[in-house]
Specification:
3-stranded antiparallel beta sheet; GCVT_N; Aminomethyl transferase family protein; alpha+beta; 2 domains; globular; 6-stranded antiparallel beta barrel; transferase; TrmE/GcvT-like; Gyrase A, domain 2; 20% helix; 288 residues; transferase activity
C-alpha cells in the first residue's frame, strides 16, 4: 500500500535499500537472511520476501510489528487475487504452443494440463488466442541485440503492433444487471464473482465495438479502493482512451466447456477504455 516504504524504513531502522523494479536484493530481517523482489501487487512500491520456511514466523512477526503504527493488516488471499488489476499485470497469458509443428513440444511438456480456457472468446483458429509481448505492454522488455527463437516474428510485431494493453472500466449498471439476474426468475447471466471474475487459468472474453471483435479482456474483478469493476485487456491500437466498447460475458453455446455451468445466458457489458495501470502513480512512480 501507500505506506509500504514507511513500514520498510521502520523494519530496516533506516532508508529502504535501493533495488530496481523487479530486481532481487539480499536483506536481513529479525536476524534472518532473506531475499526480496522489489515490486508490488497493488500499484504501490513494495517487496516480496522469501527464504527458509523455518524463518517464516520470525520474519512475518517483524514485518507486522514494524507496520503497527501505519495501519498494517492481513487481508487474505482472496483480496490478493484482485491486486494485478491495480498494478496492470496480466497473469498467465495463453501459451502459443498449440500449432501443429509444436506437437513434439506439447508431448514433452503437457502444457494443456496446467489450466483451462474460460471466457466468451471463440474461434476455430488457435492464433486468435495467442498474445504477443506488444499486446501485453511488454514490448519494452524485448531486445533484438542477440539471436533467439521467434526473433523474426517479434520484429514484425514490433514494427506494426496490432494491439495495446488497457484497463476496461465496466459499466456499473450492466454489472448490477448481471448480479441481479442471479436473484430473478429465468436464465441468469454467467455468475460474476467478487473480487475476481476469472473462472479459468486462461480467461479470455471477447471485446467488441460496433459488433466487431476489437480485443480480448483477460483478468477482471472488483477494486475496492476505486469501487469499480474493471479488467485488463488488449485492444486494437486505434482505440483511444475514453472509447466505449462491450465485453461479452458468458460462454457461447458452441464453445460450451464441461467445467463451466451451462445454466446461464451470454450478455454484453459496456466498458470504457482507460490506461493500464489505471492510476498514474502505478504507471510512473511505481515502476521507477
Amino acid at each position: 500500500g501507500p505506506r509500504a516504504d514507511d513500514v520498510m524504513e521502520k523494519l530496516f531502522d533506516g532508508p529502504v535499500p535501493e533495488v530496481k523494479f523487479f530486481h532481487i536484493g539480499d536483506f536481513t530481517i529479525a536476524g534472518r537472511q532473506v531475499k526480496g523482489l522489489r515490486h508490488g501487487m497493488a500499484g504501490q512500491p513494495g517487496f516480496e520476501f522469501f527464504g527458509p520456511w523455518a524463518d517464516n514466523e520470525a520474519v512475518l512477526e517483524a514485518i507486522m510489528a514494524a507496520g503497527e503504527g501505519f495501519g498494517i493488516r492481513r487481508v487474505g488471499a482472496k483480496a490478493y487475487s484482485a491486486t494485478p488489476l491495480e498494478s496492470g499485470w496480466v497473469p498467465t497469458p495463453f501459451p502459443a504452443v498449440f500449432d501443429d509443428d509444436m506437437t513434439e513440444y506439447r508431448e514433452w511438456l503437457p502444457a494443456e494440463r496446467i489450466g483451462s480456457v474460460a471466457g466468451s472468446l471463440f474461434s476455430e483458429d488457435v492464433h486468435d488466442f495467442y498474445l504477443t509481448p506488444y499486446d501485453l505492454g511488454l514490448g519494452r522488455s524485448v531486445r533484438f541485440d542477440h539471436d533467439f527463437h521467434g526473433r523474426a516474428a517479434l520484429e514484425k510485431h514490433a514494427a506494426a503492433p496490432r494491439r495495446r494493453k488497457v484497463t476496461l472500466l465496466w459499466n456499473a449498471e450492466d454489472v448490477a444487471d448481471v448480479v441481479r439476474s442471479q436473484l430473478e426468475p429465468g436464465t441468469p447471466a454467467k455468475f460474476l464473482d467478487f473480487p475476481k471474475a476469472r473462472y479459468g487459468l486462461y480467461q479470455m472474453d471477447e471485446v467488441r465495438r460496433g459488433g466487431e471483435r476489437v480485443g480480448i479482456s483477460t483478468d477482471a474483478g472488483y477494486v475496492a479502493y476505486d469501487q469499480l469493476y474493471m479488467s485488463l485487456a488488449t485492444v486494437d491500437v486505434g482505440l483511444a482512451d475514453g472509447t466505449e466498447v462491450e465485453v461479452v460475458w458468458g460462454e457461447d453455446p458452441i464453445s460450451a466447456k464441461d467445467s463451466v455451468d451451462q445454466h446461464h445466458r451470454q450478455v454484453t457489458i459496456r466498458a470504457t477504455v482507460a490506461p493500464a495501470p489505471y492510476h498514474e502513480w502505478a504507471r510512473t512512480v511505481y515502476r521507477a
